[in-house]
Amino acid sequence: NLxxxxxxxxxxxxxxxxxxxxxxxxxxxxxxxxYGSIPTARETTLLALARNAAxxxxxxxxxxxTLSELGLNIGPLIASAGVLGLAIGFGAQKxxxxxxxxxxxxxxxxxxxxxxxxVGGTSxxxxxxxxxxVSLRDLNGTYHIIPFSSVDMVSNxxxxxxxxxxxxxxxxxxxxxxxxxxxxxAFDELMKDPEHSPTIIGELEWFGLQSLGDxxxxxxxxxxxxxxxxxxVGRAYNGLIKRIFDERGIEIPFPHRTIYxxxxxxx
Amino acid sequence: NLxxxxxxxxxxxxxxxxxxxxxxxxxxxxxxxxYGSIPTARETTLLALARNAAxxxxxxxxxxxTLSELGLNIGPLIASAGVLGLAIGFGAQKxxxxxxxxxxxxxxxxxxxxxxxxVGGTSxxxxxxxxxxVSLRDLNGTYHIIPFSSVDMVSNxxxxxxxxxxxxxxxxxxxxxxxxxxxxxAFDELMKDPEHSPTIIGELEWFGLQSLGDxxxxxxxxxxxxxxxxxxVGRAYNGLIKRIFDERGIEIPFPHRTIYxxxxxxx
Amino acid sequence: NLxxxxxxxxxxxxxxxxxxxxxxxxxxxxxxxxYGSIPTARETTLLALARNAAxxxxxxxxxxxTLSELGLNIGPLIASAGVLGLAIGFGAQKxxxxxxxxxxxxxxxxxxxxxxxxVGGTSxxxxxxxxxxVSLRDLNGTYHIIPFSSVDMVSNxxxxxxxxxxxxxxxxxxxxxxxxxxxxxAFDELMKDPEHSPTIIGELEWFGLQSLGDxxxxxxxxxxxxxxxxxxVGRAYNGLIKRIFDERGIEIPFPHRTIYxxxxxxx
Amino acid sequence: NLxxxxxxxxxxxxxxxxxxxxxxxxxxxxxxxxYGSIPTARETTLLALARNAAxxxxxxxxxxxTLSELGLNIGPLIASAGVLGLAIGFGAQKxxxxxxxxxxxxxxxxxxxxxxxxVGGTSxxxxxxxxxxVSLRDLNGTYHIIPFSSVDMVSNxxxxxxxxxxxxxxxxxxxxxxxxxxxxxAFDELMKDPEHSPTIIGELEWFGLQSLGDxxxxxxxxxxxxxxxxxxVGRAYNGLIKRIFDERGIEIPFPHRTIYxxxxxxx
Amino acid sequence: NLxxxxxxxxxxxxxxxxxxxxxxxxxxxxxxxxYGSIPTARETTLLALARNAAxxxxxxxxxxxTLSELGLNIGPLIASAGVLGLAIGFGAQKxxxxxxxxxxxxxxxxxxxxxxxxVGGTSxxxxxxxxxxVSLRDLNGTYHIIPFSSVDMVSNxxxxxxxxxxxxxxxxxxxxxxxxxxxxxAFDELMKDPEHSPTIIGELEWFGLQSLGDxxxxxxxxxxxxxxxxxxVGRAYNGLIKRIFDERGIEIPFPHRTIYxxxxxxx
Amino acid sequence: NLxxxxxxxxxxxxxxxxxxxxxxxxxxxxxxxxYGSIPTARETTLLALARNAAxxxxxxxxxxxTLSELGLNIGPLIASAGVLGLAIGFGAQKxxxxxxxxxxxxxxxxxxxxxxxxVGGTSxxxxxxxxxxVSLRDLNGTYHIIPFSSVDMVSNxxxxxxxxxxxxxxxxxxxxxxxxxxxxxAFDELMKDPEHSPTIIGELEWFGLQSLGDxxxxxxxxxxxxxxxxxxVGRAYNGLIKRIFDERGIEIPFPHRTIYxxxxxxx
Amino acid sequence: NLxxxxxxxxxxxxxxxxxxxxxxxxxxxxxxxxYGSIPTARETTLLALARNAAxxxxxxxxxxxTLSELGLNIGPLIASAGVLGLAIGFGAQKxxxxxxxxxxxxxxxxxxxxxxxxVGGTSxxxxxxxxxxVSLRDLNGTYHIIPFSSVDMVSNxxxxxxxxxxxxxxxxxxxxxxxxxxxxxAFDELMKDPEHSPTIIGELEWFGLQSLGDxxxxxxxxxxxxxxxxxxVGRAYNGLIKRIFDERGIEIPFPHRTIYxxxxxxx
Lengths: 267, 267, 267, 267, 267, 267, 267
Known about the structure:
With 267 residues, chain A is α+β, with helices and mostly antiparallel strands. Chain A has helices at residues 2-31, 41-69, 75-108, 176-192, 230-248, and strands spanning 116-119, 122-129, 133-137, 143-147, 154-156, 162-170, 205-212, 217-225, 256-261.
């Protein structure tokens, strides 16, 4: 009986060792650039995570089966683990959520280092990406570390292409056709700028008279650019618009108000 | 006894293999355009999900029954799984919710690639639709990945038909009938526009004097269009309204204020 | 022993088949217009839901009792189900909540297809009503699918009758009795309108001087209408009020401000 | 052994039948106006709820004990119920909360049909009161169904008595004693009104100079009325105040602003 | 064996009866004014709650032990109770929280009937205090029933003493020392008022020039009063300040604005 | 067997009595000022809490082991406790959280009676500190009882030292160097004030031109004071600034606005 | 049998003692600067935490195995612990979350004592960092203790480098090129300042015309500085900009408004 148990234990340990070896070998093989393609940062992160998870599971199971086969009453161990699991499970849910969300963000390739993204209400350049959190550097140079459990929506400003959306408010007394022509002329001039012209990948997209606002008539147009170039193009276009509108006397209105002077009922 | 166990194990494995085969065959048959209709993207997504779920369940059950029949004490395994389930269950609830909501969104056909929708406070064109998340491209070209657990209400702007709702504020001193006539004339002119006329699928729906606001009397009318054409039609209608109101001298008011000059009690 | 078990299994299967038959027959009988009244859409939805729930429960129980009687150790099955239930229970709570709320909304007859309702902050006409969600079409033609778990309060604008509440702000310098008379005259004129008169089901309900506001004295009155007609009646009444107030020179005030010119202490 | 079991089962069924009979008889007795007082709507609701709960519990227990005594292994049944309880418990918590809160609202007599209340941010007249929800009809005739789980605080505007709180803002240049006198005179006149006088159940409660605001000095007074009459009395009082203030030239101020003209440092 | 069991059952029932007797006697003794001090409302509430809790626990335990000793398989009972506990536990958590918070509010003596308090965002006079909720009557006579689970912070306006905090804004052109003197003079006059003087329990506490605001210099002082008298004293002090400031020509400023007239670059 | 059990029970009871004695003795020893230092209020609170927790645990364990050794089936007891624990655990989580947070606030010495703190959005002087809640008296004399579960961040205004932060807005037309000199002169004068000078523990810390605002240029400086003296010093400094700015004619600006008069396109 | 048990117990105790010794030795060795590098504050915190966790686990397990081997029925102990774990687990989740988040913040080196950070909406200098909370001192000298469970995002203002972002609004009537030149001249002058020049680590980064706002044209530029120096550099740059703009007559605009005088329709 005892010898049978010892044999079982040895078999369990042997099986565990073999599985350990298999996991490690497979991960090393996958991460080895000599066999197949060079692994991306994404693959490295996910494989390292998978290996850690597999080995922790292996250790726990081996330990439990071994103790159990040795005839030790592992009831107390399991009970302790259960209570512990209960007590910690509630507190750790954010961590588990971090990792689950992180795995999917890596799988979906939702963002890469160098992208400008907006996550959890904060925007910036991605500086570092782990399976638990993302680190952003914003425009002021502030460094934000955001765990993925605080991330619902990932907004990537640099996927494939981008737009500069030009919503120009002009005064009600102006002619909209004249303003339209000015916006097209500004775009033509922008296309002659050697700095910005190569980053623009389409004609000016004209939408029309977007709304009749409180103090301004809003005209909308859009410029398609390379990803990440929308802000530079936008600022250059703003500058040209300002100059051309000034030259042609097209008013960009301040907030307006119409004043009536109150008088008594009798006049 | 031992041989009986081995037979049981073999039977279990055989049953598992047969079930595996059956599931795979059925899914392949359903996805095969040669037998019946060509499967939609929706069907492909849902069948793939169902197959994965069924096969994971099959593997876990087969493993457990096999170990159990082999006489191994699977108590530790189950206990570990229980504690693990507890610890992970809390963190994974968002993922489960993602998938459950995703399945229902696919079933309800709530949105399709190419639709303009608003989910979780963000609007855009649907670029990609998985069982866990939806990817939107908004007007600025920003790419949003939104997990379904953040989605309560799906608002689809392109279901069957759409409306342009025209809420025109005119000054109190204007005649509402004259403004009404102007809005109908603008609609008539719009119907002569070869670009927009084919996308309009009904007469101008006249509501009337919607409200007596702070500075403006608001007139409401509505134009029925093909889905996705409401914005273009709206902008064209805005342009016509602006021109006709200018021609006829109907004022679109700035915010008004009546000023009284304060004076002492004695006058 | 074995034969006893087989007999038990057969009895279990027989009992299950009988219960299945009973459930199906009863539901078919209830949904059959030949026996009793024609079932409403509500009854059809609820009976279908009840039948599905009953049959799923029946299958699970039959399976478990059968396996148990066959002497198979169903411990692993139950344990897996328990862990699964735990892991999924958290994520599925919204779905369960959807269905429970849906059942009660159907029972309470809280809304019907065609009603204008407001649920979860969104208003529109009910286009479709399932046991899990409601689909609304709003004024802009946007189609909203709202799961019931996002619905706390159901506000139905078309239950039995409706009101147009007229809160008219008039200038402080006006005589409130004159304005009151104008509002009654507008109502009399409205009652002569062949379009709106049949939808009004009561006299003008006069409340009085509701408040002394910042720039206006607010008079409140109310018109009782057929359900769904309150908006049309309200717009017609607004138009009449505007015309009569203009004719009689009763001012609907813009926001007022009293200006004092600052001066130094010495005057 | 078998016969002993059958006897036990029979005894269980007999006990269950007796308990059922007892519950039903007691509830019927309590609801029977011939024996004791006529039951209120509240008692009817609560007794019906209690009877349903008791009978469901009775059926479940009888079923379980019977199956158990018959020697059937009810482990699967209990396990299924446990997993089901787990999966549903999360989703049904709102329903349980509805009913628990509903029972206490009935016990506390917090609102009755016909009361004007404010629950969960919505105000209106109570039209219907079940153990799960309250139905309100608001001023616009909209019908709101609010489950009790959305109800934290119940605000009842019609408990025992009510007040009209008059916060009158007068211009800084006015004499507060003169305004105080005007407010008392308006109250005296109100007490002569045969419509409102019977609903007023106390003298004008004078508080004094409540605050020195941005543009107005606020005087506060209060009128005690019968429950539900505070709005009518308030509007009548507003009308009288407006007339008397106009007659005596006491200014109710518009928002004020003091303007300084900017000048350069040198003057 | 059977007789032993019966003896055990009898002993259990006897023990239960004795414990019941002991609990009841002790509570009656504590609530009996003949033995010791007269119990406060707080003691009565807490003791009644404790007795109910103890007796419910006693009944459940006695029932379970008795059934268990009688040889009945109470597994089904416990399982049902477990599933029930699970299903209800989620929904009832607000009720349990109500009672736990209620017990602590009673223990801490956080509020008494007649106090003016602010709980859960609502202020009013406490009219009724149970172990589950508090009932407030606000200034408008509205009656609010607030369960304690909605109560985080209890703010009691009538603990030991109170303050009227006087934040007086005066114009920038005024002399702060003159205004300070006026505020002290107003306090001296207030101390001569036979109505308010007895409720003031300290000198005017002078803080100084609190802030240099947009349009006003704010001076802060404070008057210590008996609890509940702070509002009356404050209104009286406001009245005196208004009169004295008017007499001495100290300006309480309206919102200020400095206006520059825009001109073109060339002047 | 029976005698062995009785011996075991006696041993258990003896062990429990000894542990009880040990706990009590140790706590008494620690709280006894004769042996070692006088215990702080913090130590007293924490030791009393620890003793209560230890003794409750001791009683429960002793009871359970005793009953178990006496051969009573304590299954029902444990099951009841489990269901009870489940049902109450949800409701009591706020209480447990109160105590855990309270223990850490005591350990961290985060606040002491007499400190001015801000917790859960409410500021005031700490009047009482228990292991479950903190009682604050705010500036108006209102007494707030705040359970620690509502406390995330503790902000202590009286730790070691404090600052008065002076953000002075001056008009754009003023010279910033002149204003800087005035602020330093005001500080020099403040240092001559015998009341405030001893509470200032550093030179005026000059930051510079903080921002170019809408209507004002903001200059920032800071004064280091003893804890709790920052408000008095700040008010005195405000008074001096106001006087010196008035003397030297440095303008503290009202909100500015530049007005353009609208004209038609033609001029 | 008994002696075998005693031997097992002794072995268990011996193993526990050895493990204890090993843990302590290893931690001491790691923290001993003689062997290897000097441990950072971070290492000290994490190792102390790990040691405490390991030793608590060791004590609990040793106790349980010992009792179990001694033949004592530890069922009651485990059951008590389970119910306790349940009851406390809910309340303690914030504490567990504090520690888990704290461990990761230490691992990620997200902040160090002396850094200026923003966590949970509060900004300040880190004064103390434990595994459960961070203590910040803000600009007013207020001391905030923030548990990590309230911390989602850590924003570190002092990572590697920082920026001063200069968003200058100039009047519409100004020439943007002139303003651009003024901003570069101000930067050149700043680089000659011996105090700030060494802290600037790059040229002025020019972005361009950021937006055409309501009253101002916004120009954006950025200065790269050493970490923590961005505020000082920014204030100095503000001062220079103000002086140069004043000298050159470039207007920093107040909010603008265009006023139209209302007139009747007839003119």
